[in-house]
Each structure stands twice: as C-alpha cells, then as structure tokens.
Amino acid sequence: MKNFITIIVSILFTFAISSIPFAIGEEKAVSTTLPVPSKLPYASKVRQITGGVSAVNTTTNSITVTKKIRDKVVEAVVTIDDKTEIMKQKEKKSFADVKIGDKVVVKYTKVDGKNIAKSITIKPAEPESKEKEKQIEKKAKPARKK
After folding, report:
1. Contact 137/130 with Cβ under 8 angstroms?
2. For 10-53, how does the pLDDT look when each residue is reduced to its tens digit (9 = 90+)?
3. What SS3 state is found at 71?
4. pLDDT tens readout for residues 99-125
5. Domain range enclosing 10
6. Sign of the Cα pseudo-torsion (57, 61, 67, 71, in order)
7. Alpha carbon distance 20, 76 (integer Å)
8. Are 24 and 52 in a shared domain?
C-alpha cells in the first residue's frame, strides 16, 4: 500500500512540475499577441474644437484653432493629412481654402502626440451688417415705463 501511494504522489508531482513551462509559455504568448489599447492609432477618441483659425502653416500642413472659454484662450494645433475632409456649405474644399480668421469646426484624434484632423467644416462668414445690428441691439436699453 505504501508503494502505491508513493507512486501516485510521484506521478502527481511530476505532472505538476511538467505543467509549469506550459503555463508560462501560454502567458508569454498571450501578452505578446494582444496589442496594448493605448498604442493603437484608432484607440483615441475623436475630439472637437470650434473656433477661429489663428495660424496656417503650409510647410507642416497644420492649422491653429483658437477658442475663448470664459477667461481662458484654448489653442489646438491640428495637422491635416490626405484623409482629412474639408467642407464649406456642403462643398469639398482643399487645405488652400482655409484662411486665417475663418470660423471652423475641427474633429480630430490624437495619434503619437499629434492632433490629426478627421474633418474640418468652414463656417460661412456672417455679413458685416448683421454683426453690426447684433452689436446695436445689445447696446440698446429697454424703454422706461411711465
């Protein structure tokens, strides 16, 4: 009976020792085949900024969009690539059509530390007369009641 128990224990011990390399090998295979989510180019979320174009850099194909939020001025430098869609009133435009002072809506993602534009929508400029009317309306005071 002692021999039988000794044989069973030695078989279990051998099985336990021999299964360790298989467990370690599987762990390494899993860690090397699964990509890290932060390293994937599509893992970053799409961001949006609406503001005025304060700079256009044709050598790096980038624009700087400035937006004022309360007392802070937020700037985003966005790079335009071949996949970027530039639209103005449902018409496709090119990078050359983006000018300083344009009001734009830019949707972009962060890839390798750079903001890459997915789409740029150029808002049509308001006529000056409407802007002046709005300013006059804001300055006008309500009439007094007698």
Report:
1. no
2. 887 787 777 666 666 554 444 444 445 555 555 568 888 899 99
3. coil
4. 999 999 999 998 888 899 999 999 887
5. 2-34
6. negative
7. 52
8. no
